[in-house]
Amino acid sequence: LHASPDGGATFPTPDGGWVYVSNSEVNTEEGGGGVGAVRFSANGEIQDAYAILTGTNNNCAGGQTPWQTWLSCEEVDRGLVWECDPFGVKPGEARPALGLFKHEAVAVDPVHGHLYLTEDEPDGCLYRFVPANALPDLSAGTLQIAEVVATEGTRQVVWHDVPDPAATTEPTREQVDQASTFSGGEGIAFADGLIYFTT
């Protein structure tokens, strides 16, 4: 298996086995990066091992999608999210519409059709991606950044569009003055209608 395994997930196979995918949190220049996969039979024996993404940097966490792909996050400045086929049939595909920043993890909200993303920076932000088309199409959409607003003893989240998701002008986290910051955004998950994330 590759060096420095990080975020991972398992995917069922038709024969009752599963495929385990794992990111490699190593820089490409150091001979790492990308995503590897190990295929197991129904009784747990290893049947195959292969790469499903190569040539990327510091693939940290990510997230599993309900349509059975793996979203791998590059934890580098202007890093991308890559959508990967755990079975190795289709090559990994960059999803620049999800923004270029130091990505940590992604969670899919299948109820509203949104994706939520964390940013591993001391002043990182929480993002929401609203696809232009129905899921699973991640080719286009609107990247938004969260502002937590306190009103009358409660808190609510207000979403602001990120003007330049490709970060050609300035980092995404610095483009909206109202954005709330979170120190070192890490894992994120959707459960029972709520998004949970750690810092």
Q: Biggest sheet: strands side by side, in what order?
A: 9-10-11-12-13
Average pLDDT taken over every residue: 95
Measure the end-to-end span.
28 Å
Note the beta-strand portion. Answer: over 45%
Percent of residues in helices? under 10%
Sequence of secondary-structure elements: EEEEEEEEEEEEEEE
Unreliable runs: none
Number-wise, the strands total 15
> How many H/I helical runs?
0
Question: What about the largest sheet?
Answer: 5 strands, antiparallel
Shape descriptor: globular
Q: Gyration radius, to the nearest Å?
A: 17 Å
Folded structure, characterized:
This protein has 199 residues and is mainly beta. 0% of the residues lie in helices and 46% in strands. The chain contains no helices and 15 strands. A hairpin with a 2-residue loop joins strand 12 and strand 13. The model has no long low-confidence stretch (mean pLDDT 95).
How is this fold's topology laid out?
Elements: E1 5-12, E2 18-24, E3 35-40, E4 46-53, E5 59-64, E6 70-74, E7 81-84, E8 93-94, E9 103-109, E10 114-119, E11 126-131, E12 141-151, E13 154-161, E14 188-191, E15 194-197
Antiparallel strand pairs: 1-2, 2-3, 3-4, 5-6, 6-7, 7-8, 9-10, 10-11, 11-12, 12-13, 14-15
